[in-house]
Amino acid sequence: MYPPPQENVLPVPRQLPAVLSDFAGRADEVEALDGFLPPDRDDGGGEPVVVVMDGTAGVGKTSLVVWWARSVEHRFPDGTLFVNLRGYGPSAPVEARLALASFLLALGVAEERVPADLDAQVALYRSLLAVRRVLVVLDNAASAEQVRPLLPAAAGCAVVVTSRLVLTGLVITESARRLALDLFTPGDALWLATRVVGADRAAKEPDAVAELVRLCARLPLAVRVASSRVAAHPHTTVADVVDTIRDEHERLDTLSTTGDDHSAVRTVLEWSYSWLAAEHARTFRRLGLHPGTEFSVQAVAALAGQDHRTTLRHLEVLADLHLVEPVARGRYRIHDLLHVYAADRARLDDTDIERLASERAVLGWYARAAVEADQLVFPGNVFPEPISAETPGSSVMGDREQALAWLTIEHTTLQAALRHAERHGAHREVMAIASAMRFLVMSSRALWPARMQAESRGLDAARACHERRFEALFLLRRGDTLQQMGNWDASDKDLRAALAIADGLGDPGLRGDALIGLGLTRVLRKRFVDAEPYYREALPLVRGLRGGYVEAVVHTNLALITIRLGRPHEALDHAERGLALRRVIKAGDGIGYALHDVARAHQALGDHHAAVKACEQALAEFHAYAGSESYTATTLEVLADSLLHLGDTVAAQQCLAEAVEILSRLGDSHANTLRGRLPLTEQPPTHPHDDQTRS
Questions:
Q1: Residues 139-176 pLDDT 10s
Q2: Total domain count for the chain?
Q3: Do residues 383 and 435 lie in contact, with contact meaning Cβ atoms separated by under 8 Å?
Q4: pLDDT digits (tens, 9 = 90+) for 222-243
Q5: What is the residue range of 293's domain?
Q6: What pLDDT sits at residue 671?
Q7: Is residue 237 domain-shared with residue 285, that is, in the same domain?
Q8: Domain boundary at 138, 157, 180, which?
Q9: How far is residue 231's CA from residue 364's CA, in Å, rounded to a whole number?
Q10: H or E stretch covering 83
Q11: Nearest to 202 by CA among 224, 244, 231, 225
């Protein structure tokens, strides 16, 4: 017999990356880490254990901590959390709120319930961990300030932080234990080199292997790279590699500390580069000009100015030499140190004109791809293109689902590209990339501030190139973001500024957009009487705008307003007008939204047979369109109410049960309200949960 399925079982996250198969040594450090673990106790006593491991770049902090965490995670039955805080590298450090958002999602919090405010995130995070035993690994931290919000407060949890800095602040204020990670011992370094080179080959050249370890300063990264070069070339002796390392002069500046320990790393990287054919070396240098450390083949093709097949072949060669790492189909990653080294080689080997041309090319590619993705995700509400249609780009997505996936995967790189474009004064590329950040409103609330920051950059770029229309559009976008975040006053300020620009330009459509935004704020605040005049004024201004899309939005919101104000005949008229427009422009799930409005109007008029028919049509539209789950649940609730009025209690109960299942999956608290209505023994409420604004 199998046990019955349990409801509301929280997930157990296991986020550690894979361990190295040839992990070497570190016996003393492993013993120390074991000694720091909290005792197994159930009385809630004690305090969380915080360990800070610091050491130079390439010394193997991450490898050690991940290996050790794998060996002890059975002692943490409630999960293992891991995040790379990117404290050191080409991209900006990860903000604590973004790391917390990912942790909360891993701990079972639905995206819709992740707070946007950092303090609220911290409170929820610590509350969840108060009754759990969880191991938290915070890799590559930039500062104590970045780490503090991520520390649990409950006994039974343990945190291991790695950083290139000595985080004295955590030792003082958080009672953290410090563990300094030094270079390999000679024995551990020799073991690693022998394992990578191969025992037979190492046995034939023991002195050369020992010299290789010495010249690599026993730094794990250097030992691994040099030994891998020997292993990859069966006709190259260890002595050949030793001679090359010894003769090459240093090039790479120390990334985080000073001293001679890094000279071997720079020499090994210089040697690896020198073995590349000219065409592969050029592609490698171009990677140093990429705004992030992870990239697609298409992006590198644009960066290097070559075709896809050639670029893929070059990346495969670089991967074989451990200069890049494949992370997914058609995607690669370069280590932070190697990224810095590639940029240094570009500075030394390429002209200013060549570097600038490559940087502008890849920024243009991301701008074009971002515009394409945005148009697929929001087909009825296309943002005017701030870049020329002739801007080079590659179609990397074919439909809305692929476009949304691309934006999600490339989000971090797009943010880095936005900063690069801003530094280069590439204002149109800034506007293009910033305009695509609206997809973040479909993600966790914790990412909404990132959307607002991108739109602020787009606004600055529009002002820098005196594009008044784009200035107004970014004010509208940022106003919408602030609106969704509940910052009503700031939203109104942006929307009224856009209204003033529209009047100055004599653009009635733009004025209509601003009025719609101001009306939506009142709808969201349930001030329906105040909202109506804005939409009434906007309606004649937006007729035919963007193929009728904007007019349909106005009718949609007027249908909701007039229902709530007790004027169902007007509501039905607006709903049917909105539906007709949506069908003309083939607005995807917008047709479902409009059918839902028609159903609500019929329901308000007491025509439940017509309401049922409209609901069934709306559900068919939603089922064919990804991302419409919340509206499916809302429509099921409306359908259930009309079925109940018609006496079909069984079917009504089935609809409500399905709505509860969907809302529970989404983490929507309204699921509890609907669950309380089951089994159905009462009349439906006057106003069901339908105040979802649609655009």
A1: 989 889 999 999 998 888 999 999 877 788 899 888 89
A2: 4
A3: yes
A4: 788 788 888 888 888 899 888 8
A5: 278-350
A6: 82
A7: no
A8: 180
A9: 40
A10: strand 80-84
A11: 231
